[in-house]
Amino acid sequence: MHRLLPMLFVSLLLPFASHARNTSQQPGIEFVHHDWFLACDNTGTCRAAGYGPENAESLLGLMLERAGGPGSAVKARLRVGEDGESAAPAGTLHLLVNGRDLGAVQDTGADEAMTLRPAQVEALMSALPGHARIEVIDSSGTRWPISDRGAAAVLLKMDEAQGRVGTPGALVRPGKRAEASVPAARAKPVIMRAALAAARPGDSALGSSEALRDALIATLGNSDDCPRLIEYKGTPEMAIERLDDRHVLVQALCQMGAYNYSNGFWIARDQPPYAPEVVTLEAEGFSHDERTLYARYKGRGIGDCVSGSDWVWDGRRFQPSSAFSTGLCRGMPGGHWNLPTLVSEVR
Q1: Alpha helices in 221-318 (DSSP H)
Q2: What is the DSSP string of 131-181?
Q3: For 238, which of 96, 207, 320, 325 could close a Cys bridge (C-beta 3.0–4.6 Å)?
Q4: Model confidence pTM above 0.85
Q5: If 0-12 CB within 10 Å is exposed, 13-18 middle and 19+ buried, where does residue 174 land?
Q6: Dihedral pair phi/psi, residue 34, rounded to 5°
Q7: pLDDT below 70 — which residues of the chain?
Q8: How far apart are CA 144 and CA 69, in angstroms?
Q9: How many CB atoms lie within 10 A of CB 83?
Q10: Contact by Cβ (8 Å): 284, 260
């Protein structure tokens, strides 16, 4: 299965506006335009990632992060990627915007690398809505570009998602609407992770039950949802995990592709009628210790862009607990950033 980055909800870009009904458990949005990628999470925090031009052999990544709520500031970080082949910037790095040297970039020593100073961020934000020539110059004089193509559209979507359009703090279309009208940030939802019941002697036999497999197939909308389960010949091969006194988690292979695969997961009764209910048909596996379903998918074979989701068992159901992507596929294994659309606190 060739799963790409999550669906782009281009037409639903106002989840944090005051008239919206979204709760903190619902995921935010993603939007991409040219060389820029936007992800806003369920708390109202948005992260916009810009990259070097696709064919420029530049592994630089720039991320602008802004929390929801009135008066929140934009933070910016720069990351120098490595692919094991391309040359990397050497020595002290300076940020240039439209030919103006804004000084050295502060190296924080962290994996997600260099934090820009407030004056550098201010210069970036002034330039990006228009034409902006953004470069990082290293000690050898080599210039490494960050594209401005798509930046204005992405920053406007960020303003829309956070309900800032027309306020003094808007990045693209500021106005006189009161800053206090910007919707407040939301707290992370809290999920209480529950214990699993001990396995029973008869659980493993369910994994080869044709009646259970038939019950799983009956939950599918069409044959494309889980073709491996439908097409499988012979004795079923399903993994069984005890959840509680009456229910089990059933796992079956659904899709297999060149560099991604997915399993379906159902909560079912441990006796007929099994009455299975689909949790997801797009997970990779289940962590018993973490009581968590997880999915990780490459956007392409080299793994330079990844998307993922997690679901945590709370004793009654598997609650979505996280969703993220790493942004555009730009040659760096693992991607440049973690850009979440769903965050939570799991206890």
Answers
A1: 227-231
A2: ---EEEE-TT--EEEE--TTHHHHHHHHHHHTT-TTSTT-SSS--SS-GGG
A3: 207
A4: yes
A5: middle
A6: 55, -115
A7: 1-24, 56-57, 83-90, 108-113
A8: 34
A9: 14
A10: no
Cα angle 301, 305, 307; round to 5:
105
Q: Which helix (H) or strand (E) holds 207?
A: none
Task: Tell me if 332 sits within 8 A of 83, measured CB to CB.
Answer: yes
- Domain extents in the chain: 29-188, 191-346
Residue 325's H or E segment, with its range, is strand 318-325
Contact yes or no for 143/103 (Cβ under 8 A)? no
Where on the phi/psi map is residue 299: left (φ > 0), alpha (ψ -120 to 50), or beta?
alpha
Who's near 110: CB < 8 A, 6+ residues apart? none
- End-to-end alpha carbon distance in the chain: 33
Whether residue 42 contacts residue 28, with contact meaning beta carbons closer than 8 Å, is answered with yes
CB-CB contact of 117 with 106 (8 Å): yes
pLDDT for 291:
98
117 neighbors 95 (Cβ within 8 angstroms): no
Report the CATH fold assignment for 29-188: Immunoglobulin-like (2.60.40)
Closest CA to 338 of 175, 20, 110: 110
- Rg (Cα) of the chain, in Å, rounded? 23
Task: Yes or no: say if 98 and 133 are a contact pair by the CB < 8 Å rule.
Answer: yes
